[in-house]
Give the backbone structure.
Amino acid sequence: MTGTPIANALSIAGSDPSGGAGIQADLKSFSANRVFGMAVITALTAQNTRGVSDIHLPPAAFIASQIDAIFEDVRVDAIKIGMVANAEIATTVMNALRDRPCRHIVLDPVMVAKGGATLLDSNAVDSVRRDLLPLASVLTPNLPEAGVLLGQAPATSRAEMASQAHALLEYGPQAVLMKGGHFDGSQSPDLLVDSAGEQWFEAERIDSANTHGTGCSMSSALAACLGRGMNLATATAEAKSFITNAIRFADQLDVGSGHGPTHHFHALWKND
């Protein structure tokens, strides 16, 4: 091999057979953002653009075996953690990762699917707070997820958003990226909070039904950019630009009749 090696990124998340969210979205985001993608599957779902109809969880020991197999052989430059489903899986992932050599761990606290299905047991929230938040380089909740983690109502203003981001820092992540896509209005602001302070990232809201897997896709894009060596602010800006354009060009796809996927390869595929 010559030159700088291509970064390797690992997603630890659930599977979406329709391809818009979960592992499938993460692997697309990794590829679109120029890293080699790998996957540990924490849950198998039966879902499409209209919703989730069934969930099957593999044994926690098998999830640990998948993680062990990767680290025994492959350099991991960044990790994205998504759906963990229950307390046992959250603790298993923590135990499997806590002594592993990886600087960048992006935690997307997946709780509810776009169609409304619950993807995290209510009794698992404490485990996510206790076991996974301290592992995270960056925590990437949307407004409802941040509210659940804090036991509060979702933020309805930028001031509340900032207050909740700082409160989440107290649980141990190195940084919190609060995603403001649930705000009403024409803007979709995100807020990055870490030891250096606060930084807002702005974008116009795009009126689209094709938003299935946006949280998965943005968090995995962020992990990819961190794995490539970008600093956190630059990686956040790149990931936000990526997901904004993935939504903007999603109408070039024709996938399902519900909440469609974003267009991960908008910069590579030309619509004839």
Summary: The chain has eight helices and nine strands.
